């Protein structure tokens, strides 16, 4: 099963969106500093996630999710 998730940094409220096959482990990796791209803004909390059985459907929806993520970031900075 594949998961699309959005994390929020408790340090500066920034958002991080990605995909994984093991959501619990991936969040642990983010919060322990093992993920280079997020290590400077840890800790993170999960604010949204969804699981997909079909990778093709996940990829279609991920494009829309990333668009919303960018729109939220834009609105936050206004």
Describe the structure in your own words:
The chain has 78 residues and is of the alpha+beta class. It has a single domain, classed as 3-Layer(aba) Sandwich (GIY-YIG endonuclease), CATH 3.40.1440. The chain has 2 helices and 3 strands. The protein has a 3-stranded antiparallel sheet, sandwiched between helices. The longest helix is centred in the last third of the chain and has 22 residues. The radius of gyration is 13 Å and the shape is globular. It starts with a strand and ends with a helix.
Protein traits:
78 residues, alpha+beta, GIY-YIG endonuclease, three-stranded antiparallel beta sheet, 2 helices, 3 strands
Strand content: 25-35%
Write down the overall mean pLDDT. 83
**Count of extended strands:** 3
Shape: globular
């Amino acid at each position: 099963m594949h998961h699309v998730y959005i994390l929020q940094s408790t340090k500066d409220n920034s958002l991080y969106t990605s995909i994984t096959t093991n959501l619990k482990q991936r969040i642990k990796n983010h919060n322990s500093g093992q993920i280079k791209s997020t290590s400077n803004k840890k800790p993170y909390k999960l604010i949204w996630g969804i699981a997909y059985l079909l990778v093709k459907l996940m990829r279609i929806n991920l494009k829309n999710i990333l668009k919303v993520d960018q729109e939220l970031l834009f609105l936050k900075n206004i």
